[in-house]
Amino acid sequence: MSNTNNSPTSSSSNPSEGSGDFFLDDSTPPPPTELFDAVNNNDVTTVELLLSEGDPIESKNHLGQTPIITASALGYLSLVELLISHGATIEAVDKLGYTALLEACSSGHSLVVRLLLDNGANIETRQPRYGRTPLIEAAKGGYEDIVRLLVERGANKEARDCQGKTALLWAARNEKRDMMNLLVKLGADMEARDGEGKTALEIAKRVEESSDDSNY
Q: Which parts of the chain fold into alpha helices (H)?
């Protein structure tokens, strides 16, 4: 088994988003390349073999991701199931503070989200720099099935991130009209205001006007 650095990627691992919040200790050994290659390739058989041979299930890549975080970001349901069965830490965080659940929600992988919740993932976990919950991440991306699931499981519809935005306010900011309608149907507060005092409708109107102006 090789022990050199590898380069798996994920949807939320944008170096412009808060790099510096979380760091691997300098003494952290380099991750097993074969293990992370197998994870990236959704090679369940090889992952199981490598784990049985002693590759550490909590090893981290250069992004600070453990195998379960990477697999969740990529939507590999069977692989996530395997890692959970081998005792992977569901609440592990990467360098930016993303857990497996936050990754799955921000990437739109509803089956992985359900699996993680069924196995005790914290539905109110937050990415620390921006304060976004799984519901906010899903609403930002327009993933209606995930939003329904999270609300059904008791997610706080009025949770706010560090900018004072709720899931509904983010849906407005990102021009997700269908998501706005869904959140309102699910009971989100239409009168909630962001840090600038704007409601979802006011934000949506401002974004629409800005978009219209850019077309001239």
A: 33-40, 44-52, 67-74, 77-85, 100-107, 110-118, 134-141, 144-152, 167-173, 177-185, 200-214
